[in-house]
Specification:
This protein is 21% helix and 16% strand. By secondary structure, the protein is an alpha+beta fold. The strands form 3 sheets. A 3-stranded mixed β-sheet has the order 1-4-7, with no helix packed on it. Strands 2-3 form a two-stranded antiparallel ribbon. The longest helix has 13 residues.
Length: 177
């Protein structure tokens, strides 16, 4: 069993907390293709995919957070952006400006969410099914902030927009990684 970090955006952390998210997709990097003893590669050899996470791994969620500190600078606790509503954040915008730290800089000791990998499979991104989209955290009541449309949008369209908002630069939906 390994303990590994996994980053999630604030909306996806909220989906985990609301028990709407039970699976996630990550791009898997290809491994080196198999070679024959003489160093050549037969034409039929394909590049294998190696997933970053394995069944049994314990994942600690890296999320947007802020340290609570004393006047001495000692950290006494943390707060998490996912605990606030959009209205809370707008109302406190002046007071909270600059307070949030990216999940990339979160320490393991501050993680509040731990997930266990129970299954791993490789599939093309565009093979996602409606039940998978539900397990990815889609909430039919509201798909904001990933689109400019109101609630009730198509689940697949929501997932495409979510995917591209997170991975669109290197691995856009259209590339079907």
């Amino acid at each position: 069993m390994r303990e590994l970090p996994i980053p999630f955006s604030t909306p996806m952390v909220k989906a985990i907390l609301e028990d709407r998210k039970s699976q996630t997709r990550r791009v898997i990097k290809p491994c080196s293709p198999a070679t024959i003893a003489d160093g050549t590669q037969p034409e039929w050899v394909f590049t294998l995919a190696k997933p970053h996470y394995q069944v049994g791994d314990q994942l600690w969620v890296k999320e947007t957070w802020s340290p609570l500190t004393e006047a001495t600078g000692r950290v006494t606790g943390v707060i998490y952006k996912a605990n606030f509503t959009t209205e809370d954040l707008k109302a406190e915008e002046c007071d909270m400006k600059g307070i949030w730290k990216s999940g990339r800089f979160m320490f393991k000791k501050y993680a509040r969410l731990w997930l266990e990998v129970t299954a791993v499979r490789a599939e093309k991104l565009q093979s996602i099914t409606y039940p998978d989209i539900l397990d990815e955290g889609w909430d039919a009541r509201s798909s904001l902030p990933f689109t400019n449309r109101t609630s009730g949008e198509d689940a697949r369209e929501w997932f495409v927009n979510l995917w591209d908002s997170i991975n669109g630069r290197k691995y856009p939906w259209e590339s079907n990684p």
